[in-house]
Design goal:
Blueprint (H helix, E strand, L loop, with lengths): L1 H4 L15 E2 H14 L5 H12 L10 H6 L1 E2 L1 H15 L4 H5 L1 E4 L2 E4 L9 H13 L6 E6 L5 H9 L3 E8 L2 H13 L6 E5 L19 E6 L6 H4 L4 H6 L13 H13 E10 L5 H10 L1 H4 L1 E8 L5 E8 L1
Helix pairs in contact: 2-3, 2-5, 3-5, 7-8
The structure holds glutamine (GLN).
The site of glutamine (GLN) has 8 residues, from loops.
Length: 317
């Protein structure tokens, strides 16, 4: 695929040709190739690449008439070629651009750290609406990835005292910290590399013995293993599968998170999870069956913009 699409035959390849090239012509040529190779979201990917290379804030600046007015420099052509080659190899656009917006933040993106999905912005919205400006919240996030959830909450709520963000992946921890520093949000954040075990106990250098949380939040891996084989190539070729594959039924990490919440939530504290739409009833049942041991109560299920059950809230009694 890559070979076939090398731009050697492109009329734009020979940069020694000292003629100016209109952005619209290069755009149309590349778009046709992306469509021929059945790359998903071809037009949007290309608009994002052009906007990035041409340093335009708004996508409409690289559409229609606007694209016709732009003449490309040799450097810009080369940079577009490089990014186009990544996209035709199915690299997610977020990794090509090396940054992505999440709520009010622009976060750095790095292979293979999980790319934030729009649904997760809704999870942050749901949690945000419940926070009061008066309390001093202590929050624990498991599986922080790029840091999108923790950093958005810190950015939007002065009332948060501290967030401890945990991830099993070294690259994810590094990226969360990098984003925290870039956005000047690192002073209320502690990032720890750790793989959550089934007993839901954390080492005391991460969570001191007497520390309990108002909120535990996670967008855990929840895709059942058999479905993870059917994910888009963009996902399985480039993203850390540990952020997606949740074991046989997609519930492995969720079970550990329930144990964790029983151990570390304050009374009336809550666990917020992003989940698969087949999970809420099963999770409610597990919580009910372990009510005596855990002292947890299943509170609510919330739908995402696509009307799918996507989030659950569980409270410590
Ligand atoms: N909704 C996600 C996806 O398909 C799954 C994320 C997750 O397992 N946390 O891409």
């Amino acid at each position: 695929n890559l070979r076939k699409s090398l731009p050697l035959s492109s009329p734009f390849h020979n940069s020694s040709l000292n003629c100016s090239i209109k952005a619209i012509d290069l755009f149309d040529e590349k778009l046709k190739k992306l469509i021929d190779e059945k790359i998903s979201e071809p037009e949007n990917s290309l608009e994002l690449i052009f906007a990035n290379v041409l340093k335009k804030e708004k996508l409409r600046e690289v559409r229609g008439e606007n694209l016709e007015k732009i003449e490309l420099t040799e450097d810009q052509i080369q940079e577009i070629e490089e990014k186009f080659l990544c996209r035709i190899s199915k690299m997610p656009t977020q990794y090509i651009l090396k940054e992505w917006e999440f709520r009010d933040l622009k976060l750095n993106m790095k292979i293979p750290v999980f790319i934030p999905r729009p649904e997760t912005e809704e999870l942050v919205e749901l949690i945000s609406q419940k926070l009061s400006p008066k309390k001093n919240y202590k929050i624990l996030e498991i599986g922080c990835g790029s840091g999108c959830i923790s950093l958005s909450l810190l950015n939007e709520h002065e009332a948060i005292d501290e967030i401890i963000a945990v991830d099993q992946s070294k690259s994810a921890c590094e990226l969360t910290l990098e984003n925290a520093k870039k956005l000047d949000l690192s002073h209320r954040l502690k990032v720890c590399k750790h793989k959550l075990e089934n007993d839901g106990l954390l080492p005391t250098d991460i969570v001191p013995l007497d520390l309990k949380f108002d909120l535990i939040i996670s967008n855990p891996p929840y895709v059942p293993s058999k479905d993870s084989l059917k994910l888009q190539p963009e996902i399985y070729l480039y993203e850390d599968i540990r952020a997606l594959d949740g074991g046989k039924e997609g519930l492995d990490v969720i079970n550990s998170l329930l144990n964790l919440s029983a151990n570390y939530l304050k009374p009336k504290g809550s666990l917020w999870l992003e989940i698969d739409d087949r999970h809420p009833e099963i999770i409610a049942k597990i919580v009910e069956n372990n009510a005596e041991k855990w002292n947890l109560k299943f509170m609510s299920t919330y739908k995402d913009i696509f009307k799918k059950n996507r989030f659950v809230e569980i409270e410590k009694c």
